[in-house]
Amino acid sequence: MSAPLHKARPAGQGRALPDTQQGMRRRNLSRVLHTVRDDGPLSRAAVASRIGLTRAAVSTLVDELIRTGLLEELGPERPGRVGRPGSALAVSGRGPAGIGAEVGVDHLAVCAVDLRGEVRARAVRHVPNRDRSAEPVLGELTELIHRVTAEAEGEGLWPAGLAVAVPGLVARDARTVVRAPNLGWLDTDLGALLPEKLPLTVANEANFGALAELWLGEDTPRDFLHVSAEIGIGAAVVVDGRVLHGNRGFAGELGHVPVWPDGPSCACGGRGCLEQYAGEEAVLRAAGLEPGEDRVGLLAGRAEQGDAAVRRALHDAGTALGIALTGAVNLLDPENVVLGGALSGLSPWLLPSLRSELARRTAGPSCPVSVSALGPQGPLLGAAHSVVRAVLDDPAAVAERG
Ligand SMILES: [Zn+2]
Fold first, then answer.
1. Which pTM was predicted?
2. Which residues of the chain are under the pLDDT cut of 70?
3. Where is this region: Disordered (predicted)?
């Protein structure tokens, strides 16, 4: 029995398999599965020519993937082709599923994604979680997880793992929330409070949002900064297709980069942090509005109607984002910056000042800024897909567990 798939492994960090015969077999199983998923339906011969292995070797690997329910045969290919007809292979729509969950400041969400990348079940509950202790919040989340899992199981899927996106700092054990200021949680072990027997990965929502962008976005580069916001502002640094976690796992706290060193004090103990200018509540305050439930909807609606105070507040938030991002861009030289989460819904009013500030201040040529098409769905999808990716990267581990 191998170690559970995800435990103690930060999301998106594929484990290097040992360079032994066994390691080689596992790598080849993954190559076959990835190839069929990316280019399928494919015959065994087509898989063999794509990955440069013999047909016999591929057949053995394919048989194992069919036996463990990861691949399925669609029946004989159309007649009339040259050579012996082969059966077309596809990734199974009835195999393992990734369960993704999200704890937001005012919502909970869970979804199940199959190996093909399709969302097969989803549940969302709008509930104010701010300053609620972790036990009742995770109790409600567990209910949603059970509901989504049951729905997925009804379609012949089985949960391969659970990944939870949280708006806070997560320890390197990938299960302890060290600090989630907007929830009021400190040193909370989510593994102890989620009564699931599933392999668990907990990560910051910005990291899962960035992974979703990497895996599902159109033409996403392998080096980029992903910036997202809810109440707080988070960022993820993606280097060569991997999220940079930092020494303690806390990398990406763009929200607490000082924009104006003598600015308003912040919950982190600093002053003039980006969050004090570009977080949702800060923008509402600057626009003279009360923070309600649908903060982004309120701001976007008012901005669309031409509300001068809201537009000014968003312009200033864009400037603050540009200043904070200048530091990150100068330091890291990413290929681009992606605005995700709630920021994507406000981008028409944030982008002009953000871009001009960034262009004015960066040392090299200006770094392009784009807007995520996934929007607020990014973290939840990234969480579910991280489980799916782990199965695709090491399908043998699933067989050993099953
Ligand atoms: Zn701060």
1. 0.88
2. 1-19, 76-86, 196, 399, 401-402
3. 1-26
